[in-house]
Design goal:
Blueprint: H1 2-34, H2 40-101, H3 108-118, E1 129-134, H4 138-153, E2 158-164, E3 170-172, H5 178-189, E4 195-196, E5 211-214
Parallel strand pairs: 1-2, 1-5, 3-4
Antiparallel strand pairs: 3-5
């Protein structure tokens, strides 16, 4: 569209340029005729005037053409920049939606950080950890497996319970105990949002020790969903 408009303007300018050249040629012919004509002075004067007009037209249209070309290029660049900006915004939105819909996993850096923080607690102060999840949600099942493997890699004894039918997000209980505190810190260091509880998770096994409940992925922020 932009290239077609620029080409149309260029064609119009070319026609004016040719017309000016034509006037210049006619003037030159009149000057030649004047050298052999009876009314040479008059014809010379007219021919000279036509030459001047034609030359001026060539110069003026040349300047106009250059200005129009620069303006057309500037407008084309501005439109191209605006189009690229829209493409960039679309790509950012696509990436945001992808992240919202992608399964939660512990990446290598997150996994290493999680294990490193958990390992800071001396073994004599550690307690067992219960990992629980919604077994009807494949995404939650995979995510809890990542968490359990990291807990095991840090040298903790873990148990699991898969009887939850519905839960949202990640909860960590008994966060006032030594193991609960370091567990909550490990999640925070890995960039995983949790809901920290001082006591037990109601209705969950593993009373008195840290419990990790992995529910379904929370809805996007601002979404009006009632659970």
């Amino acid at each position: 569209m932009i290239e077609a408009l620029a080409q149309k303007n260029a064609n119009w300018i070319d026609r004016l340029f040719l017309l000016s050249n034509g006037v210049l040629i006619i003037g030159a012919i009149l000057v030649m005729i004047a050298t052999n004509d009876i009314s040479a002075n008059l014809m010379t004067f007219i021919g000279s005037g036509v030459v001047v007009i034609g030359t001026s037209g060539v110069f003026a249209f040349g300047v106009m053409g250059e200005r129009r070309a620069r303006k057309s290029i500037s407008e084309s660049n501005a439109k191209a920049a605006a189009a690229l900006e829209k493409v960039s915004e679309a790509q950012i939105e696509i990436e945001r939606l992808r992240l919202l819909s992608a399964w939660r996993r512990l990446g290598k850096h997150q996994n290493d950080t999680f294990i490193s923080v958990l390992s800071e607690l001396p073994r004599e102060h550690r307690s067992e950890i219960w990992v629980q999840f919604v077994d009807t949600d494949p995404e939650a099942v995979v995510f809890q497996q990542d968490i359990r493997e990291a807990i095991q890699a840090a040298g903790y004894t873990d148990h699991y319970y898969s009887g939850w039918e519905r839960a949202i997000g990640v909860k960590v209980s008994n966060c006032t105990s030594p193991t609960g505190r370091v567990l909550a810190s490990a999640f925070a260091a890995a960039g995983i949002e949790i809901r920290a509880l001082e006591g037990d998770i109601e209705g969950a096994p593993g009373k008195g020790v840290p419990q990790v409940l992995v529910g379904s992925r929370p809805p996007p922020p601002g979404t009006n969903v009632n659970y």
